[in-house]
Specification:
This protein has 306 residues and is an alpha/beta fold. It is 45% helix and 16% strand.
Length: 306
């Protein structure tokens, strides 16, 4: 295994010109990593590269779009030409195009899927080939609690981030035999992502659940609070893969998908809508639960029950 040292990695951070991405790029630079600072906003990318240089670090700016396969390849090619390899990819770039579901346009849907979901393929795939050849790599995906738990008037974003969860799990399986760890972070921080694209009715949604972001919670919603978790997941020290972590105002927690024991029909040919209704309470019980590491583990559990 050609494993990089914690301070000697080559790291790509997309959307690194501002907000969470900038904090992540700086965090890796402070550890001694060489960083490809990707952002389509040239002035922002250049500013972060300058910040890293002032810290005594090494960085290069990339202005390519993550939303195309050509852009993703160019980002990785820059890392290879400048630093010779790629050890870590942090897929962070993104923006919002919120609207009530019935008001979403085709452009609203496609733009979000392109930059949040397709980009995770376009940047990670060329880097993956390098990591697989090296026998080592780390991929940190940026998801959202909205994608895992739901949010109104933001369904395009939620769907794209839900897709990133599925991609994370699939790549964790594929990377297991090649020293590649893939994990997902759900950041909750104060950023500019919704400044020019406010989510309709967001304040009403917050208040409905007692979720005011004022006071102490607002003070803790810093982008810098997300970066340490991402830097750890991108390090050789981290052996986890396929996991999801929430970074919410300084609270760090594992998020997981489990399956309850459920109800197993004695005879599948006799199941009807009415029998489903009769056993609904058993079907919906959450505990005890299992947490399958992949699709085959779920099927194996049912086989054992039979």
């Amino acid at each position: 295994m050609n494993q990089a040292s914690p301070g000697g990695q080559v790291v790509i951070v997309t959307g690194a010109g501002q907000g969470i991405g900038r904090a992540e790029a700086l965090a890796f630079a402070r550890l001694g990593s060489r960083v490809v600072v990707n952002d389509v906003a040239v002035e922002h990318a250049d500013a972060v590269v300058s910040e890293i240089a002032k810290l005594g670090g090494r960085a290069v700016a990339s202005y390519d779009s993550v939303a195309t396969a050509e852009g993703g390849a160019a980002i990785v090619d820059l890392a290879l030409s400048r630093y010779g390899t790629v050890d870590v990819v942090v897929n962070n770039a993104g923006f919002l195009r919120p609207a009530l579901f019935e008001d979403l346009t085709v452009a609203n849907i496609e733009e979000i899927i392109d930059v949040h979901l397709k980009a995770a393929f376009f940047v990670t795939q060329p880097a993956w080939r390098v990591m697989k050849s090296n026998g080592y790599g780390r991929v940190v995906m940026t998801g959202s609690s909205a994608g895992m738990f739901g949010q109104g008037a933001n369904s395009n974003y939620c769907a794209a981030k839900g897709g990133v969860f599925g991609l994370t799990r699939a790549l964790a399986v594929e990377g297991a035999d090649h020293g590649i760890g893939v994990n997902l972070v759900l950041p909750f921080a104060s950023t500019t992502i919704s400044a020019s694209n406010p989510i309709p009715g967001i304040s009403v949604q917050r208040e409905r659940y007692g979720g005011s972001y004022d006071g102490r919670l607002a003070e803790r919603r810093t982008v810098d609070s997300v970066a340490p978790l991402v830097a750890y997941l991108g390090s050789p020290e981290c052996s986890l893969s396929g996991e999801v972590f929430s970074a919410c105002a300084g609270r760090y927690a594992r998020v997981f998908v489990g399956i309850g024991r459920g109800w197993t029909a004695p005879d599948v040919d006799l199941v009807s809508p009415s029998t489903i209704s009769e056993h609904l309470s058993e079907i919906r019980v959450a505990e005890p639960y299992i947490e399958p590491e992949n699709i085959f583990a779920e099927v194996a559990e049912v086989a054992r029950a039979l």
